[in-house]
Design brief:
Blueprint: H1 9-18, H2 29-33, H3 37-47, E1 50-55, E2 59-64, H4 67-75, E3 80-81, H5 108-116, H6 122-141, E4 149-150, H7 151-168, H8 176-186, H9 198-220, H10 228-234, H11 243-256, H12 259-274, H13 276-284, H14 289-300, E5 305-310, E6 314-316, E7 319-321, E8 326-330, H15 331-334, H16 370-387, E9 390-393, E10 398-399, E11 408-410, E12 412-416
Parallel strand pairs: 2-8
Antiparallel strand pairs: 1-2, 3-5, 4-12, 5-8, 6-7, 9-12, 10-11
Helix pairs in contact: 1-3, 6-7, 6-16, 7-12, 8-9, 9-10, 9-11, 12-14, 12-16, 14-16
This protein binds protoporphyrin IX containing FE.
Protoporphyrin IX containing FE binds next to α11, α12 and α16.
Length: 417
Amino acid sequence: MDPFHNPFIAEHTGRARTIPLEEFSPANPKYMEMDVWQPYFSRLREEAPLHYCEDKIIGPYWSLTRYKDIMATEVNTRVFSSSSTFGGITLMDQREELPMFIAMDQPKHDEQRKVVQPIVSPQNLESMEKLIRQRTQKVLDALPHNETFNWVEKVSIDLTNMMLATLFDFPFEDRALLTYWSDSATANTLGGGHIDSEATRERILAECLAYFTRLWNERVNAEPGSDLVSMLAHGPATRNMSPREYLGNLVLLIVGGNDTTRNSMTGGVCFLNQNPDEYAKLRANPALVESMVSEIIRYQTPLAYMRRTALEDFEMHGQTIRKGDKLAMWYASGNRDGEAIDNPDQFIIDRARPRQHLSFGFGIHRCVGNRLAELQLRILWEEILQRFSKIEVVGPPKRVFSAFIRGYTELPVRVSR
Ligand code: HEM
């Protein structure tokens, strides 16, 4: 049986060709969960690169699906705001505002970003490399052989969770809480999981804030340290934050460093299984790991889109985006745009310009942690190649019910030497 056989794709490919465009809502979380999103976005890129939709749940919104349009919008911060005051970076408007610097405009955005930037300085990355490698080796060495297990849980979650604990200098024995808070912050309330309402989410995030407030209080009166809590507690632009803003920035840093890298760790295993020739190429030439990591991140596009809100009327593709309208820049689609990327639907580990993708965004909000994520993935694959001749996917992957997070909850695999 082919674990990647998708029983839904034929039907959706047909539907994507015929559905009236005004009836189509690209942000339906089922499209990503069922992995049937591509034909819809391909049609939008061709026929409606700026698409308007009146969604019953999230309200009216625009979608941008071409690479170049997304880049142009990212840099037009005068017209397109990220601010949580207008709804922030996801299409669903939040009931209660949660300020964080990814959802701020200038100048406050830059001031707060500068406070945490040193966590990913080249020197800091270099000093973390040894620790990341040791942990990766330990996790891989503990994997069962000739036995099916869930790669998401045993490898991707474990590694990204330990990384987060290091970045925050978080008590190691409690580190599972970080994954729990990250999942709670991003879960779709309609997904059937533990976050069944916004009230439940707020209650769990309040627990997160209480825990981190203890860490803040310990560190604010100590010498400035090199962890994220200490940086925030001492940073000129963050030391006087309200508790709500502290929570917002914590959520940003926890989610930013967690889901995205985790899902790239799982995505890589999927893509190499779907493309055995690329897997053979990698085994024959392990030096390709570096360019493969970028290709994994492009192909996975762990965050499907970012939202902006128009601060004034704006003309594009003969239509007017009105002041106050929300707009999704679909990175997942831009990364499959043949006008910008050759053979965009193919997973090719030795592309000429592998870092030319939209997965980290662009402009002033471009991902702070991009080099760290690449480092973690590079080490993971270097260590995998040292140990296993094959990681075989033996059952269908289960994907996250979300239009925002493109990820996996389960990937059954077997490893062999
Ligand atoms: C911002 C993706 C890993 C922290 C972003 C943005 C994207 C993104 C799309 C928004 C860009 C924009 O609006 O233009 C990713 C992906 C990752 C990853 C795909 C892994 C493969 C990380 C890691 C960290 C991190 C490991 C933590 C250390 C952040 C922060 C921001 C951000 C703090 C906000 C930047 C700002 O607003 O200035 N990321 N990220 N990310 N990311 Fe990442």
